[in-house]
Specification:
There is one protein chain. This protein has 1 helix and 19 strands. It has one helix spanning 2-43; strands at residues 52-54, 56-57, 59-61, 64-72, 75-80, 84-86, 92-95, 102-110, 113-120, 126-133, 138-145, 154-156, 159-164, 167-172, 178-182, 194-198, 204-210, 217-223, 229-232. It is globular and about 65 Å long.
């Protein structure tokens, strides 16, 4: 009986090790997959009301108007106006494959994600809002608009607030879908050229439009939670 015990012991040990390795592997890959969706929540808690983050404007590199500086993990990367993002050593990190050149670019890094707000100029003005997962250099989602952004986007909680000519909206950072949106607001110069986004008090967001040929301003105030227009003044 003793020889059989000596044979069984290594087999039992090997079986236990196999089970542990399989369990660890499954748990590891599950956590990696889940991490992609938890990064945002880890940086900005669900239900955050007081933290408003303005995205960073990408500025042209001195002496090179067709190249923009984008900081990723404290490293100075570059974005060409045709949508190619390069690392500091010149390696192509991601190509957005834009059909029209970038007119203006805002971006923000939250955890392991980069969010880009791109206004493009061409035959038809347009804008793209993108979430790029940094570690895998993978595009998670893209939301497109048929008009360019008119002011600096704002981030609050797990949402982005954007304004375009005659259009305003709130986008979920997790999937790029609109929570609410209003378009074709323009009316004879009113509510056409939004230049500011503010949060005057809890559950309210204001979009302020400047008249093109005067100092007058118009404001549309929206209930942040329900998306209902509270007042237009």
């Amino acid at each position: 009986m003793q020889p059989n015990s000596k044979i069984k012991q290594p087999l039992i040990t090997a079986a236990v090790c196999f089970v542990v390795v399989v369990f660890w592997s499954c748990n590891f890959f599950y956590k990696q997959a889940d991490k992609e969706n938890s990064d945002i929540a880890a940086i900005i808690p669900q239900g955050s009301k007081t933290s408003s983050y303005a995205t960073t404007k990408a500025m042209p590199i001195a002496g090179c108007d067709d190249t923009l500086r984008v900081v990723i993990n404290s490293l100075n990367c570059t974005m060409s106006v045709d949508g190619r993002l390069h690392t500091p050593n010149g390696k192509l990190f991601y190509d957005f494959g834009l059909l029209d050149p970038i007119k203006e670019l805002y971006y923000a890094q939250l955890g392991g994600d980069l969010f880009f707000f791109l206004s493009c100029k061409g035959d038809k003005h347009s804008a793209s809002i993108c979430r790029l997962y940094i570690s895998a250099a993978r595009l998670v989602w893209t939301t497109t608009l048929d008009t360019e952004l008119s002011c600096q986007p704002m981030l609050k909680g797990q949402f982005a607030y954007i304004a375009a000519n005659g259009s305003v909206g709130k986008i979920t950072l997790k999937n790029g879908q609109f929570e609410w949106r209003y378009s074709k607001l323009g009316n004879g110069g009113k509510y056409e050229y939004f230049r500011e986004i503010e949060f005057p008090q809890n559950h309210e967001v204001s979009f302020i439009s400047h008249h093109k040929r005067s100092i007058e301003k118009d404001t549309i105030v929206i209930n942040d939670m329900t998306g209902e227009i509270i007042r237009m003044k």
